[in-house]
């Protein structure tokens, strides 16, 4: 009986080991974006704004409005079109509101994206290359699958009335 248990264990290891080391791929026609982790928890993706870039933006699924750093806004000659209230944990401020002609993440483009121009403060302390925050106003156009190993950020266009999902396997 002990030999049988050992044999079963050996077979299980032989079958499971390739699955553990297997590379994850995007399902179907889903676009994969390279991402990098900052401080092991913040997801940063390259995007283009108004056909220029790429610029590193932090992905924040909890934020509503995309944020652009003032220095990048000046580089892109973005014009304020009013102000908007910006709320964070224990913070409220008014920030200039602008409209981005296009935001492109991989091959996925969203046009006429509202954004605020605001100093990124603590976010840029973690990584000076971060130029903004990609938020719900852009992300709502896609279903997201975020896989931490290997690091990939996957996005596909949202189909009308399609159920929203976010899969965060913590391997």
Describe the structure.
The chain is an alpha+beta fold. It has a single domain, classed as Cathepsin D, subunit A, domain 1 (Beta Barrel), CATH 2.40.70. Helix content is about 20%, strand content about 45%. The protein contains four helices and twelve strands. The strands form two sheets. The protein has a six-stranded mixed β-barrel. The longest helix has 20 residues. The radius of gyration is 20 Å and the shape is elongated. About 20% of the residues are buried. The C terminus is likely disordered.
Q: Could you give a short description of this structure?
A:
The protein is of the alpha+beta class and 171 residues long.
The structural domain count equals: 1
Number of helices: 4
* SS content category: alpha+beta
SSE pattern: HEEEEEHEEEHEHEEE
Low-confidence stretches: 150-154, 161-171
Provide the β-strand percentage band.
Answer: 35-45%
The CATH class: Mainly Beta
List how many beta strands DSSP finds.
12
Topology diagram in text:
Layout: H1 2-21, E1 31-34, E2 36-38, E3 42-49, E4 52-59, E5 66-68, H2 70-75, E6 83-88, E7 91-105, E8 108-117, H3 122-126, E9 130-134, H4 136-139, E10 142-147, E11 152-157, E12 166-167
Parallel strand pairs: 4-9, 5-8, 10-12
Antiparallel strand pairs: 1-11, 2-3, 3-4, 3-7, 5-9, 6-7, 7-8, 10-11
Task: State the main characteristics.
single chain; 171 residues; alpha+beta; Cathepsin D, subunit A, domain 1; 12 strands; 20% helix; disordered C terminus
